[in-house]
Amino acid sequence: MSELATVARAAELNAQKEAHVQELRRESGRPVIGYLCCFAPPEMIRVAGAIPYRITGRPGEPTSEADAYMEPYGCSYVRNIFAQALKGRLDFLDGLVISHSCDMVQRLYGIWTYYRPLPYSRLFNVPHQVTPQAERFFMRELLFFKESLEQFTGQEITKERLAEEIALSNRIRARIRELYRLRLEHPPLIRGSEMLELLLAGGWLPPEEFLKLLEDALEEIGKKRAAQGPQRPRVLVWGSLLDDVAFYRMIEEAGADVVADDNCIGFRVFEKDIPLSEDLVEALKDHYFINFQCPRTDRGPGRARFDYIIQRAQEYNVDGVIGYIISFCDPHKFDYPDLRDYLRESGFPMLLIDDNYSFAPAGAIQTRLQAFVELLKSGRALSS
Predict the structure, then answer these.
(1) pLDDT value at residue 329
(2) What pLDDT is recorded for position 379?
(3) What is the DSSP letter of 189?
(4) Which residues in 97-125 are b (16+ Cβ under 10 Å) and which e?
């Protein structure tokens, strides 16, 4: 349990998020549209009069329900998500938006909408290369997405309302960056597990409530005294989607502090504001397609594409990098060898945890984390 009352409140809300969203649906009369990845902007979903709900998994739960629909060697995260749908836990969804973040996720869309059809469903196609042609394609997908939402909800996505929503979203991003900067301190004023708990709440809370939660956290941390004691190794976590605080807590229990990250629910999404330009659809394209640093998008040959990770590691004064990859996550696995070597050459040792989205066997993972943390401690002692 976190010492921060705000984070404890976020954890309580997250534990009952399905019930909270269903209550919000009943009270507002607005449909709930689930999504797996933010390539299809949740801002558009809100402006269309629907409630965006980021679907997350339940690590370690059996997924035998999915065996009749999906191959067992497929992505364990995707299987986990679909098993939840088959168990009826996502029956409150009125719609489903799945972006082509990877082939297995695209396959999930076809299986889900065939066997568990919803009133609204949309596959949001995303190019795999950043080129002028790809940018035009993404713009077209945004416009098609806008039209489909308007047809489903009967509410027009106006430029004025979209501008208001983007401005509110940018205020949230600014507060998140403030919280991240508190992790520059030695020791960090907010732990990695606490930060992720707050971000997970942002995947389903109404934006006004999420903004208030972040502001309350900033106010509470502002009154907090810096912890005393020996400095712990500082690490950056890179890799696949982490939508559960368990892994961060394992790192913290091993004796290190997670002070920075580069994964799907983290700084990747919040590093920059959505530009409030004249063409707001183009602004969404720039943010979610060009600025969003996802390994599934090819940004050309060479290791310079990892420079931003090196810069973040240097800025947050990390001692090492811990990678977390869900088994069969090809986009991250293809990047790992080059990134590992580039980090090593830049003075940052790296540990990779390859997991089946279960954090089991926990003892084996914990042992590897503890050994890596001890390595970082010895390296720090030698350099001091």
Answers:
(1) 87
(2) 78
(3) S
(4) bbbbbbebbbbbbeebeeebebebbbbbb
